[in-house]
Amino acid sequence: MISYKHQLSRFFVRMGLAIFTCVALGPVIWAVVTSLLPLTALTSRPPDLNPLNMTLENYGLVLDSSRGLFSGLINSFIIATFTSAVGLVIGSMAAYALARLNMPGSSLILMMILATQMFPGIVIAIPLFLVMSRMGIVDTHFALILVYLSFTLPIVIWILKAFFESVPMELERAAAVDGAQPLQTFQHIVLPISLPPLFATGVFVFIEAWNEFFFAIILTRINVKTAPIAIAEFSGQYQTLYGQMLASAVLASIPVVFLAIIFRRFILEGFVEGAIKA
Amino acid sequence: MQQISEYNRRRIRMGIWFSAPAVIVLLTVLAYPILASWVLSFLRVYFAGQGLSFRFYGLTNYTELLTNQLFREALLRSIYFTLVEVIVVTFLALIVALLLNHPLGRHAFFRVVLLVPWALAPVANAVLWKWIYNANYGILNQALIGLGIIDRNIIWLGSPVLALNMILLADIWKAVPFIALLLLAGLQNIPSHLYKAARLDGANAWQQFQHVTLPGLKTTLIISIVLQSIWALKVFDLIYVLTKGSPADSTVLLNYLSWRVTFSNLDVGYGAAIANVLFVLMFILSLVYIRALRPRKTKEKVG
Amino acid sequence: MATLELIDITKKFGAVTAVDGFHLKVEDGEFVTLLGPSGCGKSTILNMIAGLEDVTAGAIQINGKTVNALGPFERDVAMVFQNYALYPHMTVEENIGFSLRLRKRPKSEVQEKVQRVAEMLELEKLMQRLPRELSGGQQQRVAIGRAVIREPSIFLFDEPFSNLDAALRIKTRGEIKELHQRLGVTSVFVTHDQEEALSLSDRIAVLQAGRLEQYGSPEEVYLRPATKYVARFIGTPQMDFFSGEFIDKEGLRYKVGEAEIPVPTLTRLPEAAFDAGVRAEFVSLGQKGFDATVRLVQPVGPFTYVTVDWQGGSVTARVNGVSHLKPKEHIKVDIDPQGLLFFDRATSMRIDIL
User: Fold this and answer.
1) In chain A, which residues have their Cβ closer than 8 Å to the Cβ of C81?
2) C56-94 pLDDT, tens per residue?
3) Is A52 within the bounds of a domain?
4) B63-299 to CATH, choices 2.30.40.10, 1.10.260.40, 1.10.3720.10, 3.50.4.10
5) Is C45 helix (H, G, I), strand (E, B) or coil?
6) Which ipTM was obtained for this model?
7) What is the C-alpha separation between A211 and A224, in angstroms, rounded?
8) Are C284 and C334 contacting, i.e. CB atoms less than 8 angstroms apart?
9) Where are the alpha helices (DSSP H) in C79-165?
10) Phi, psi (rounded to 5 degrees) for A121
């Protein structure tokens, strides 16, 4: 016997969920639909949404190498992968040191990490640009990876430190008694049981590095255009080619959305709880 | 006299080696530039031929800030932007979080829905809304005309106040999912026996919300608000793609201004000064963050 | 095989002194238990022996050599942890063989040794299982196996039974005792369970708040406890105490209220004030003795413990078989003078012979 009030509230909840889903996914779906329609369909009023007109021609045009999107995707992939990999390696090591290895000055380092989350990129962008142009490393993959590391490392360290602290001390003591040096304990015992948070953090860093735009436009010129830059150019240069503009945005977003969906459980648990604990 | 066993000595040594790479990266790419930024703001930077030359400028860059109308307007706009975004996002995100906490909303599908806007690159988001806002063919105009709400296409990004708010809308759309996730985690951390106790005491749904939900969410709400404010102050991609500051610099916010001054006008010292102002703003916000989290330990135990 | 000596060991955590001037000598092949309640410092001492915890002051010597600066592996000690600490991502086989693989021993040697240990501990059928697929008792045997395969000079056990249920505890206790009889390795065992200590050890070190109260064989700590604390801690049920005074009346007697108990074990009237203690097996109920009222009747199978109130307070008697006494009944309680132990009221130390 469901009361009337109860039924009413369930109705509102269902409505709310429906509205939420439409609002959240609507624009995205519309973007995808747009990217699949030829320009003529989009510029007719009202737009001609006939599914029979759908075509992949926008994608084909957009991936044409002269438009820069293809190389943009490759560059983004290289940079995001390296940032993620290097960030995980040195970040996990630092996180372990802070969690377990009685590092002198660890609270100072932690404060630093907290502080890095809270300032605008422009502050470091200007000096970095000056130094890097003098060193001649502007417009290189290396420059971007280095800069991306600077703001993803703190997150990696923060999340992994919390996790390493939850590994029972006894386990590491048993390893020491068995004859393991700290590095071996880290390698053979701690890391293998940390695979889920390692993965989650790696994916998170990948997504952040891939999506980054601000430092990308400051620190690159022609050689190392990333996907976001390519999209931005599209929206400037070819903005009347609506279908292609959206196609470029969709293409550049597919990898990260895909990753986010696959690893959603890790991301949701790890990162959100980390933010709470912070 | 304390003798440290080899076990612990090894661990300390290892700790230093382990954290060295990360510390080095952070020091060079973060600590040094932050210091340099402050130094730069006291200089006037010239691009002479191939290199740069610096001349000491004292506080001139900062006094320039105070008298410059564009800076003042950008500052006010940034504050407006941040305030409205934080209020609207927190409100909407709370509703979404409540919906997703309800038994009907527990399905994994909704969590996926949340993640999609979050995973999008801010640039992609900007492009998306650029298309939606398109005066001639964008869906917003088409829908509104179709519904009879307006009779002529509106140039959304064409008039000053409107453009700023459309940018605001786009940012809100992208921000709500993540904040909703945060709040959802906070909601799920509220022990259910508190609700049961309230129900037994005769509280209805609204009262339960007032006396159990809101207090339990206090910390999470504070975290969300501070994080959201910091992100709102950092807005850049949207401005770059949608308006580039126009019409008539009415969508220029602080972060964008600093970038433009430095890299378009090549007034590096002045740009650094603006950046530092932004830095101070965020620093104050983070202090609020840290302060708000400390007394938590004593208060949350009640109930 | 090794001797272990702790010389004046002190451990401070900041301002808190956990262990103060602790002395202990363990002979080659001995099984010694560190016994005490939670927080008395026994685990800290064990960790210092293992090399997992730094020593604030004092020396730890193994076979006469000071090992303070050495790590656990270099000291050639192996340890069985309270929560087993099995590597969760490794199989039983890998867990046991880990230390050998770390030393890069040839595969054939590792396999052979692991197999031998597995057989000794009846783990052959479980070799490919992961720790989470094992029961508590099985996990513990794997933990023991991991220690045994090291063939160490000293075994250390940190309350290894606390996570097992009662029946399993007693069974595993027997297995450990057999293992020690078989391997004869010097062992230091930490527990708060006095029964465990009594049944397993060659000698027991009873600790209180970081200090050694008594170090002796099970018989010694049971029959001749050095202090009131030891007397109270060892033995089930707890020793009963009562206050009285010595009088000289046709020989030495101990007077409690109106009751007088002859004391044949002492010859001279002591000067200080003393409390008396007696164990339940020296207390009997019947028609002879001092007036008492039954308070509690607790049958435990072969005996029944009957607690009565008398002039000295309350005392528990051990009655064979089943007792038909009921609370509030009147009975007479008789205390065997041979079972009386006397403790200096001021210092809590027991007097032996006067």
Assistant:
1) 170, 173-174
2) 889 999 998 999 888 888 899 999 998 889 999 999 999
3) no
4) 1.10.3720.10
5) helix
6) 0.84
7) 15
8) yes
9) 92-102, 107-120, 136-148
10) -60, -30
